[in-house]
Amino acid sequence: MNFDYSDDQKFLKDEARKFLEAECTPARVRAVLDDAARSYDEGLWAKVAAQGWLGAAIPEAHGGLGLGHIELCAIAEELGRVCAPIPFASTVYFLAEALLLAGSEAQKAEWLPRIAAGEVIGAFATAEGPGAVSAAGLQAKVEGGKLTGTKVPVTDGDVAGVAVVLAKEGAQPGLFLVDLNGPGVARETLKTLDPTRGAARLTFTGAPAERLGGPGEGLALAEQVMDRAAVLIAFEQVGGADRCLIMAKDYALERYAFGRVIASYQAIKHKLADIYVKNELARSNAYYGAWALNAGAAELPIAASAARVAASDAFWFASKENVQTHGGMGFTWEVDCHLYYRRSRQLSLVAGAPRVWKERLVSHLERRNAA
Amino acid sequence: MDFTDSPEEAAYRAKARAWLEENAPKYAVKRGAAMEDDESHDDMARGKAWQATKAAAGYAQITWPKEWGGAGGTPMQAVIFGQEEARFGVGFGYFTIGLGMCVPTVMAFADEATKTRFVGPALRGEEIWCQLFSEPSGGSDVAAARTRAVRDGDDWIINGQKVWTSGAHYSDFGIVLVRTNPDAPKHKGLTMFWIDMKSPGIEVRPIHQMSGGSNFNEVYFTDVRVKDSQRLGAVDDGWKVSLVTLMNERLAVGGGTGIDYSMILKLARELKTDQGTALGDQAFREKLADWYVQSEGLKFTRFRTMTALSRGQTPGPESSIGKIIAANQLQELSNAAVELEDQYGIIDDAELAPLSAAFQGGLLSAPGLRIAGGTDEILKNIIAERVLGLPGDIRVDKDVPFKDMPTGR
Questions:
Q1: Cis before residue A208, ω within 30 degrees of 0?
Q2: What pLDDT is attached to residue B317?
Q3: Three-state DSSP class for B132?
Q4: Helix (H, G, I), strand (E, B), or coil: what is residue B68?
Q5: Which residues in chain B have Cβ-Cβ distances shorter than 8 Å to A310?
Q6: SS (H, E, C) chain A
Q7: What average pLDDT values come out for chain B (409 residues) when binned by 10 residues?
Q8: Cβ–Cβ below 8 Å for B1 and A3
Q9: A vs B: CB pairs below 8 A
Q10: In contact, A98 and A124? CB cutoff 8 Å
Q11: Residues from chain A contacting residue B285 (CB–CB below 8 Å)
Q12: For residue B32, is it within any domain?
């Protein structure tokens, strides 16, 4: 049995943690939080690019490190742990994964080296308003290679150079690459639950759009991209949830009430044990997702759904109970609990809410267990 | 990150499988392990015969040293053999407590002659052991044992009552934790003995469980005489001895409770509603997703534990999460299934109820599983204290002489 990171992967993860503890301090995260004009940390982004992480899973032929997806999962876990205020997920989990999955050789050659070098930020634009994305509700359309419509919200759409957009072409949805610095694109920055991550409304009026993958494959491809992103985001969620547990524990060991540390009360001990249990289940499910992603296994849709459901649940629970354990201090702007509370919502919603993934999981189980 | 054996593990698995092909009996009904023993005379005889076959080939206690009949193997090899044995459907639970907990305690504390007398017969399944720790006065609080042993020359005389003793009714020997010094604080006045379960004055009464079955016993001691030479460890040092017993508790990397998401999925698919089947119900589907994530999360957590073993590390108390999740899921899932059956759900008859009344059975046995082998609450304390490093509870009984402790019910 070999169901864990390898020694090399652990080394990479440890190095990533050391790097981020030095370069992505809470003060750096807060600098983005407290400045409405900034939606990411440009300096950190450049340093992360210099580490080669943006191209961790991009083949060497396209300028990446050519490591596997497990390595990318290890990095994701550490980014989640520090609440990194950078457009890593949009660029790597969505844009690069979409290109690796469905890009033509020319598209890969054009974009992947620039992604790996940190020269372009990506975005994944599917939503068009409140409610889950559906084929029936899709309004954005491409005619004669020009995109018209509105996508809202688009995480990192305010700073991205290129977006992968879900839009109808004729009657069928397709995925399209759109240069956001080209003609026919208007962006409006939005106020979000997690100000350490940016989001925008993108309005397209005849923006040039290049199809990614075959015609009419948009929904199927979007789901496959989401599966990949879901696994990687699950690792960010696991990292964040673990951090919340440590924050809650450290505070509970320092805080005195009624003459003793609050960590000695069973109400607190059992709460933290509950967080631990959820975190471990989430980690185990995430590992299965990592295996399926890395191996290109047919089980990926089920594994990704389970990873996402478990990690969303764990991070939400850990982040809210971390605030609770901190008491009144946890409700202040100055204490970092709310950074994770906010990030847990961002990560649970950005690739579609858990409710949608539960349905996706069950529909796959229904088919698999039909016999 | 994958599920493959290392080359050494694969070789061991192949060897174990070949041996099982050759030697495993072909029973009509495949068996798992533990809890499934039907305890009939024939079943016990089959179990003993299989145990003897394994012992002769060095598969009875793989991690034990060779001089005591083991194979000097690794914990991972024991896990692999257990998996393969389960595939052949020849697992028996009669010997688990004795070989996993009692006999290792004897081996750690008894003299050579005693060890020589007991280890072989236990290994070969000729003699079965039980563990007599829990008492009416102490379930989670084992050190609160009140059963008294009083010195009488070279003997000790035991009076009191043990409870929740698995297998006492078919055991030949046991290890018993008794109070020898009520004037000392509770952890400092206990002593451990091995005992012949056929000794005069021992009476075993089965406990009738709320689930209808009787897997455990009460054991009454009335002037039961044991020799001082049956003592394991020093007088009044029994608590330390009991910790060795509990440390030897078999590594929990086994299967689940036998009921999981796939069974309720099957049930829901068969139940017709106006809209199709119960599986079409959105509220049910969301719950089903949660159960799947829990069941699989537990399975993959076991794989992580095995990975730690495979890499030569010692898995920690993290495995405590397994029983908390499994027991609670058994209860919730069984109840959801019974509610899915609607009015018919009240029927607890294997001939009539869906899936041979497995969910009704799960509903009634789950409360026991949430308590046995560490309650949910104790397991959460273990996670909080040993995994997370939070302080232990404030002990008001630590320095009080045992006889002065308030007892209540």
A1: no
A2: 67
A3: strand
A4: helix
A5: 293, 297
A6: CECCCCHHHHHHHHHHHHHHHHHCCHHHHHHHHCCCCCCCCHHHHHHHHHCCHHHCCCCHHHCCCCCCHHHHHHHHHHHHHCCCCCCHHHHHHHHHHHHHHHCCHHHHHHHHHHHHCCCCCEEEECCECCCCCCCCCCCCEEECCEEEEEEEEEECCCCCCEEEEEEEECCEEEEEEEECCCCCEEEEECCCCCCCCCEEEEEEEEEEEEEECCCCCHHHHHHHHHHHHHHHHHHHHHHHHHHHHHHHHHHHHHCEECCEEHHHCHHHHHHHHHHHHHHHHHHHHHHHHHHHHHHCCCCHHHHHHHHHHHHHHHHHHHHHHHHHHHHHHHHCCCCCHHHHHHHHHHHHHHCCCHHHHHHHHHHHHHHHCCC
A7: 90 96 81 56 90 96 94 91 88 89 95 96 97 89 94 97 94 98 95 98 96 92 98 96 77 61 93 91 95 93 87 75 90 95 95 94 93 90 93 88 83
A8: yes
A9: 158
A10: yes
A11: 358-359, 362
A12: yes
Residue ranges making up the domain that contains B47: 7-94
Neighbours of B257 (CB within 10 A): 19
Q: Does B280 touch chain A (CB under 8 A)?
A: no
CA distance B137 to A52: 62
Chain A residue with Cα closest to B79: A1
Beta bridge partners, A125, equal A165
Instruction: Residue A165: count other Cβ atoms within 10 Å of its Cβ.
Output: 27
Same domain, B280 and B356: yes
Which domains, ranges and CATH numbers included, belong to chain A?
Answer: 7-116 (1.10.540.10), 122-216 (2.40.110.10), 219-368 (1.20.140.10)
Is B138 part of any domain? yes
Q: Is the minimum CB–CB distance between A259 and chain B shorter than 8 Å?
A: no
pLDDT at res. B320? 74
Q: Where are the beta strands (DSSP E) in B29-70?
A: none
Alpha-carbon distance B320 to B310, whole Å?
A: 19
Q: Which two tokens stand for residue B368?
A: 């026991």
- Max Cα-Cα span within chain A: 73
CA angle centred on B61, ends B56 and B62, rounded to 5°: 95
Residue A281 has pLDDT above 60, yes or no: yes
Active site residue B249: yes
Check A310 against B321: CB less than 8 A apart.
no
Q: What span, in angstroms and rounded, lies between the C-alpha atoms of A93 and A231?
A: 9
For chain A, say whether B270 makes contact (Cβ under 8 Å): no
The single residue listed with the structure tokens 């204290």 is B385
B355: left (phi > 0), else alpha (psi -120 to 50), else beta? left
DSSP B155: E
Give the side-chain half-sphere CA count within 13 A for B46. 20
pLDDT for B213? 87
Indicate if B284 and B234 belong to the same structural domain: no
Contacts of B300 in chain A (CB under 8 A): 3, 284-285, 287-288
Question: Could you give the CA distance from residue B109 to residue B393 in angstroms, rounded to a whole number?
Answer: 30
* B391-B396-B397 Cα angle (round to 5): 110
- Cβ pair A32, A195 in contact under 8 A: yes
**In whole angstroms, what is the distance from residue B107 CA to residue B293 CA?**
42
Please tell me whether residues B48 and B79 are part of one structural domain. Answer: yes
